[in-house]
Amino acid sequence: MKIMQVTVQVGRVETASVEVLVLAHCEGEALAKQDAALLDQALGGSLSKLVQSKEFEGKANEVLLYHTQDKAPAKRLVLVGLGRKNQVTLETIRQALGSAVKRVRQAKVGSFAVALPTVRPEGASSLDVAQAMVEGAILGSYQFTVYRSEAASGQDIGGMTILIPKKGQLRQVAEGIRRGVATAEATVFVRDLCNHPSNVLTPVRVASEAKTLARAEGIAITILEQKEMERLGMGALLGVARGSQEPPKFIILEYNGTKKKDERPVVLVGKTITFDTGGISLKPAENMEHMKADMTGGAEVLASIRAAARLKLPLRLISILPVAENMPGGRAMKPGDIVTTLSGKTVEVQNTDAEGRLILADGLAYAMRYKPAALIDIATLTGACVVALGQFAIGMFGTDHALKEQVRKSGQKAGERVWEMPLWEEYFEQLKSDVADMRNIGGRGGGMITAALFLSKFVGDCPWVHLDIASTDWSERERAYVPKGPTAIGTRLLVQYLIDRSL
Ligand code: BES
Ligand code: ZN
Ligand code: ZN
Asked: Where are the beta strands (DSSP E) in 158-247?
């Protein structure tokens, strides 16, 4: 998908000469208060009438297309609701733009303008509002049509202009656009990778995507091959990869945006299983196709480092992707097999479907070499996460209060919220093995927790947060700016965290 061009312009709604003008409107408010009074006058008061007659009430995500019949310079209006004024958040605005942009696309126009809403969510600046608008618009128009022979249902929208009433907001809004484009672009990149099937997006292909990206952005990259992993002793990652014909990869990307010599880096580690059959502990057939997206975490850390580079964030950032395909081939790991991880700890693999924590164990142990200031891993780790949290919260665990708070805040701002779960040592009882240092499953109860606790054994005393995105990874239905299928949720949280941390 081509990302739309976004610009900002000083101008008023009643004089904007555009194909489509999007106007956001709060429920129960007069149009005059919302900067559209002169436009309404030009249209003979018909906008007010639409509101009075409740044909358009301004409820969240309500959309109405209106032809101005040459009574105003804008040919068509798309009214979109924001709901009650005192309840408007950045997320409401993001969703409103997502809803509006779909209507714009149906109207088959190549570009549109949108007025910066006059309402300001509590604590938000015009930068934040512009950023949310851009994210909603780009992500709401997302389509994945690579494998369709027929033309897509609607053309891509080429451009969006944000209209602002006063020059004074220009700089803030421009910066909001810059950030919004970067986070949305990152999300689109992740959605695309997740949508590609596993016969295309193999570990080899992930490595080549990473190489292309690194070269384009001037990011340093190292890719470890199987031989190197054997030499280092990455027994857990190698164990998972054994059942597949596809060789594993271990990808390290390093972006340095700071001049400070010995600044400790932020390190991101993402689970990158290009397909999870479960291995010998084979998964049931139903919905198994969703497991092509078991590489979401890896795609997200890849997209995040690209966004950091594009935004020229002043920080040191390292992204690590342990990559493998989990298959039940003739040489596959079998239940009861014992692997020695990079950390030296041994693991009894009682269930080959709990492969994410194995590859992450080696990923996290490797990350420790960089003495991270903050270590964050992100993974479609457990079905238990889906059971516990449904589709709207990311599971968060961590060892460091300050880091957890930062991640929570950035997630809130990005509209990708986390919910903390306990990382209590008591649960480790469930991970004890009779023959090795630990086992890779925790038995009945607390499946999301025992998985996180397993990971915690590989991070030493580093400030660490683990995000389980199995809950939010795949959407069963289309929402305002989230498509059906892979959502890439977690991407904006990570990019926002990097922005908030470095600026
Ligand atoms: N990739 C799955 C987790 C998953 C499930 C992600 C559903 C997205 C949606 C993971 O590798 C897995 O299979 N976990 C097992 C662990 C169990 C064997 C302890 C699970 O959750 O069933
Ligand atoms: Zn699995
Ligand atoms: Zn998995």
From this structure: 159-164, 220-224
